[in-house]
Write a structure and sequence with these properties.
This protein is an alpha/beta fold and about 240 residues long. The protein folds into 2 domains: about 15-75, no CATH class; about 80-225, TIM Barrel (Alpha-Beta Barrel), CATH 3.20.20.70. It has helices spanning about 15, 20-25, 30, 35-40, 40-50, 75-80, 85-95, 105-115, 135-145, 160-170, 180-210; strands at about 1-5, 55-60, 65-70, 100-105, 120, 150-155, 175. Strand 5, helix 9 (about 135-145) and strand 6 (about 150-155) form a beta-alpha-beta unit. The longest helix is centred in the C-terminal third of the chain and has 34 residues, at about 180-210. It starts with a strand and ends in a 26-residue tail after the last helix.
Length: about 240
């Protein structure tokens, strides 16, 4: 899966206000203004230190250096911006299926199909990068029409309930991504929390189908929706 919806980090105003750069950086003097806030929460501080401090990104391993430092993410994103030429090169050296995540307009969806992808993910990265970008749910029908069944269309963003999954399928998505839902479960209770989060979503999908009088997910279509002038739901920035 190639992610194209985060070419650079968005302006998350909470991070500069909380001193994220200074606290993650190597200068001890830059951390001094934020010490009162840290020392005011001794229980949290002890837990943080006992847990190893600032975690590294274990899923991104730099050859010869090991897991990436959290503070290096912004620079890494800027260096890793994907172009159509990159996608063509990946297609030439990788014989397996390719999924492009972050498509929001029909032209890009068509281009991705022409480049040989197996699926596209309609996504605005949860609305956390550019706050005025189109919601995924609003862009989804245009993408579905553009690919016209040639590849699978998935959707990401704003999935908090089973009814959100049902709405996405009604709009033409083959499936949805549930990044936040499983992350909440993982943070709360590890593997069991993830399983519980998926169980909640599944139960809510089944409940919504029953309330709609729809016999199966495969039977969902746009007739079950009343399309309004406003988006069906919005992914709120964190």
């Amino acid at each position: 899966m190639i992610t194209i919806d985060t070419a650079v980090s968005g302006m998350r105003e909470r991070d500069p206000r909380n001193g994220m750069k200074q606290l993650l950086g190597g200068s001890p003097f830059a951390k001094i203004p934020f010490l009162p806030g840290i020392l005011a929460h001794p229980k949290w501080l002890a837990s943080f230190l006992l847990d190893g401090g600032v975690p590294k990104l274990e899923n991104i391993v730099i050859p010869g250096k090991g897991p990436m430092q959290l503070i290096d993410v912004g620079a890494a994103l800027a260096r890793a911006t994907v172009t159509w030429n990159d996608l063509r090169w990946i297609r030439a050296v990788w014989s397996g299926p390719i999924v492009v995540k972050g498509v929001l307009i029909a032209d890009d969806a068509k281009r991705a199909v022409d480049e040989g992808v197996a699926a596209v993910v309609v996504s605005n990265h949860g609305g956390r990068q550019l706050d005025c970008v189109s919601p995924s749910a609003q862009a989804l029908p245009e993408i579905v029409a553009a690919v016209n069944g040639r590849v699978e269309v998935l959707m990401d963003g704003g999935i908090r309930r089973g009814s959100d999954i049902v709405k996405a399928v009604c709009l033409g998505a083959r499936a949805v991504l549930v990044g936040h839902a499983y992350a909440y479960g993982l943070a709360a209770a590890g593997e069991a929390g993830v399983a519980r989060a998926l169980e909640i979503l599944r139960d809510d999908v089944e409940r919504t189908l029953r309330l709609l009088g729809c016999p199966a997910v495969a039977e969902l279509n746009s007739s079950y929706l009343e399309v309004l002038s406003k988006p069906l739901w919005n992914a709120r920035p964190l």
